[in-house]
Structure formats: structure tokens, C-alpha cells
Design brief:
By secondary structure, chain A is of the alpha+beta class. Helix content of chain A is 42%, strand content 27%. Chain B is mainly α. The chains are: A alpha+beta, B mainly alpha. Chain A: Belongs to the LAMTOR3 family.
């Protein structure tokens, strides 16, 4: 059944042009589910990169603009969209030319998966 | 320094003598003797209400400090809060086991919302079209079904509202 999850995430990756990786982690950046293509930058898949968003979203939620939901970072060759789906974090790594709007819409396709995976964190 | 010591000395003398003068404190010595307990290693010099018990004061101060710490935007905390490598591997393994257990109990399989893509659309597009006879057959069947639906009539035989137990 884990293979089922992986193949589902792989299908999502292939549905958006330029999307290189989908990583679902806990607040510290420890992966719960991870799917990446060969082109995905290895440094962006490390826990200290992924976990930074957990702290950043907490701090950004203190700006009196209500809770922070998403942070998008644009780099020279890549873009990273990170979503706060407490207690999980979703990180999407894509090429710079990928459609950011489509990436932000990906959470609709991840709703079922996140619902299941949240139980993993809650049970732990 | 000399001034300070003489002031303190004068204060003591006035206190011991019990005679009010310009150096006598307006508030009693009981207020002066209450010391605020240090919270988180820092002594607080702000005045506190004397009526409340010390425990309540301390918990109130702790609450304020916690609230302030929670509201402060501290970017420095982002650094150096990584997970130890062995803990990382242990947790990752634990999650992977849990994921397999949870997904194994799930009956519904994960399917994308969109239909599967076709790698060679030209094969499907180049396929033989449906024959005219088949189209005619389906159209006639649909027309007959629509006509039959139109002919359905409700025959009114008795009242729709039936009174129970009404004399």
C-alpha cells in the first residue's frame, strides 16, 4: 500500500510540468512520505532545509496577519513551495519555470493523503 | 558614596526612633520588606500588588513572560534546532512503519482526480469511428425511452392526505 502512495505522488509529479519533488514531513523535517525525480536538488531534500519552514511559518504567524499557510521561495534555478498542514509540512520543489499557481493548487490533490498521514504523527 | 551611606544611615536612625520627619517613608515597612521572587533567573523590580498571595503573583508573572516569549518574533531560534542524526533515522523508520500500517488498513485506494493520460493519442484518434447503424440504433432507443417517459401518467385514485384517528 506504501507503493500505492508513492505511485500516486509520482502521478502528481508528472501532472505538473517542472515539479521535481513532493516531500511530506513532520515539523522537524523528518520525512513521512517522499517522492523525488533525479533532477531534484539533493540539498533541498535534507531535513535541516525542510525543517526550517516549520519554524519560519510559526514566526510568520506572529505578524498579526493570522496563521501563515504557505511560503514560496524563488531561487535562480528552482522554486520551493512549502505548505503548513499542521502537524505536517508539505514541500514542493520545482524548476523556476514551473507554474507556481498549479503548485499552490496541489494541496487539493493531497487532501486525502494528508488526512491519512496526519494519523501517523498524531499516533506517535 | 559618602552621600549614599549617610542617607542610609539617616534612614535607619529615623526608623529606629519612630519619629516621623521628611525622610520617613509614607508607606509602612511591611511593603518595603516584600520582595518579588526572581522569575527565570531575573529579579523584577516593578511594583506588585500587595493584596494577592505570592503564588498567584508568581504564576501571573510566569504567564505574562510565557505569553511575551510566544509573541516575540525570534528569527535566531530557527538556527540550531535540528534533529540529531540517530533520532532522525529512528523517527523516519518509525514513520515508515506507521504509514504502512495505516495505509494497509485503508480500503479506498488513492487515485488521481484526473483520468490517466494516454502516451499515444494518435492510435485512439486514428481508430475506426462508430458505425452509422449503431448511432441510429442508440438514437432510436433514446427517442423511444423519452417518449415512454412522457407517456407515464399518474392516476389519481384516493386522497393523498389521510387523516389518522380523527373522528
Amino acid at each position: 500500500m506504501t507503493e500505492d502512495l508513492k505511485s500516486y505522488l509520482n502521478k502528481l509529479i508528472s501532472s505538473v510540468e517542472g515539479l521535481l519533488a513532493i516531500v511530506i514531513t513532520d515539523r522537524d523535517g523528518v520525512p513521512v512520505a517522499k517522492v523525488a525525480t533525479e533532477q531534484a536538488p539533493e540539498l533541498a531534500l535534507r531535513p535541516n532545509f525542510l525543517g526550517t519552514f516549520g519554524m519560519a511559518t510559526d514566526q510568520a504567524s506572529k505578524l498579526n496577519l493570522s496563521q501563515n499557510k504557505t511560503i514560496t521561495a524563488m531561487y535562480k534555478n528552482y522554486q520551493v513551495v512549502q505548505m503548513n498542514k499542521s502537524p505536517l509540512l508539505v514541500t514542493l520543489i520545482a524548476t523556476r519555470s514551473a507554474n507556481t499557481g498549479l503548485l499552490l493548487e496541489m494541496d487539493n490533490y493531497l487532501l486525502d493523503v494528508l488526512k491519512e498521514l496526519q494519523q501517523v504523527i498524531i499516533a506517535s | 558614596m559618602g552621600c549614599c551611606s549617610s542617607c542610609f544611615g539617616a534612614d535607619k536612625e529615623a526608623d529606629y526612633a519612630g519619629i516621623p520627619d521628611e525622610r520617613t517613608r509614607l508607606l509602612g515597612s511591611t511593603v518595603r520588606n516584600i520582595q518579588t521572587p526572581p522569575v527565570n533567573g531575573e529579579s523584577l523590580s516593578s511594583p506588585v500588588p500587595t493584596g494577592a498571595p505570592p503564588k498567584d503573583e508568581q504564576s501571573a508573572l510566569t504567564r505574562i513572560l510565557t505569553k511575551t516569549a510566544r509573541n516575540v518574533i525570534d528569527v535566531a531560534t530557527i538556527e540550531g534546532q535540528g534533529v540529531e542524526q540517530h533520532e532522525y533515522y529512528e523517527r523516519a523508520r518509525h514513520y515508515s512503519q506507521k504509514v504502512s500500517v495505516i495505509l494497509a488498513n485503508k480500503n479506498k485506494s488513492l487515485k488521481p482526480l484526473l483520468p490517466n493520460g494516454v502516451l499515444a493519442p494518435q492510435i485512439i484518434l486514428a481508430a475506426q469511428p462508430i458505425s452509422l447503424a449503431d448511432i441510429e440504433l442508440i438514437s432510436n432507443a433514446a427517442v423511444k425511452a423519452a417518449k415512454a417517459m412522457k407517456d407515464v401518467k399518474v392516476q389519481h385514485k384516493e386522497d393523498l392526505v389521510v387523516a389518522f384517528g380523527v373522528p
